[in-house]
Give the backbone structure.
Amino acid sequence: MAHINVPEGVPGIRSLVMFRPETGKPLYELAQVLLRGESPLSEAERELIAAYVSNRNDTMFCMMSHAAASRHFYGDDKNIVDDVLKDMPQSGVSDKLKALLHIAGKVQILGKEVTPEDIEEARKHGANDREIHDTVLIAATFCMFNRYVDGLASFTPTEPEIYEEMGKRMAKGYKAPNPEGEEIRH
Amino acid sequence: MAFINLENDLPGIRGPMAYSPETGKALNELAEILLHDDNNTLTRGEREMIGAYVSSENNCFFCHNVHGAMAQHYFECDTQLIDDIKKNYQSAPIPDKLKALLSIAGSVQKGGKYVTTQQIEDAKSFGATDKEIHDTVLIAAAFCMFNRYVDGLNTWAPQDRQVYIDRAKMRAEDGYANMNLNK
């Protein structure tokens, strides 16, 4: 049960945003701009960074939902998502994405962990300033979302099918739930 | 020097916010509601203090000085008290409720799962409401983001702490939403 009195049966961050829509609005705007807005990184790659960081933070709700969104965008190549979550360095993603995920992993520990060498390695594989910026901010943002979801002990469904549906919905864009109530998807 | 060319010389988070205005706008809107909006039973000073404490735990010089100076401005106290709270809030002369909330914020800083039911019960026993606990957790979580954004891109920060104190009054008046990053 959640630490505070949020709507029952509503999973993860949605329950928190229904409890406090005023903060929910900028949170969903941030997710929309970062994960669906303009970026040289694909939506699949950005969702993968989000899932990777959430996995390192051991936040099942965010990891499962953003992995599902990433799989949706990768389409026929969707197995890449689980390969990265299992063993990133051995996975089949490009060297550039590996270098960016490595930076995201450093950010997950703490901002100061990122070294000039980490940045140089990403540049060597073709990463530009914008890609590095977006990687750092996505990783930082999920260090917030993960703590928000876990810090209030929000409801985490365990059924994979629920996340698959969630991933499809997330692919269409991030829109804050109606605070008056929403259809509960079970 | 920052790891990427931010195309401006602004210090701390203002650099990447000017580089990426769309994300900057959402970040500042979040800061406005969490820290500056008056529709809140936690005072602005208490909320800034939570941000400053988490930033200090994350060793983020820019953020802990900006928000420490903000708390100092609202508390109308000296820098010593702010530094004492950052260093050891348990022995600082502050209300038990704020201590309980800072304890929750400290757990969030380590990871969301570190928050215990006992900590929540303690905060409630000192009068904290659900919304106050919610905002404490989200402020702490948000600073785990802000701090990583600032340090992960290796932005520069003024080293003279007085700079932050001198700017606090202006920020308290202007707030965070639609911030003029160049001011």
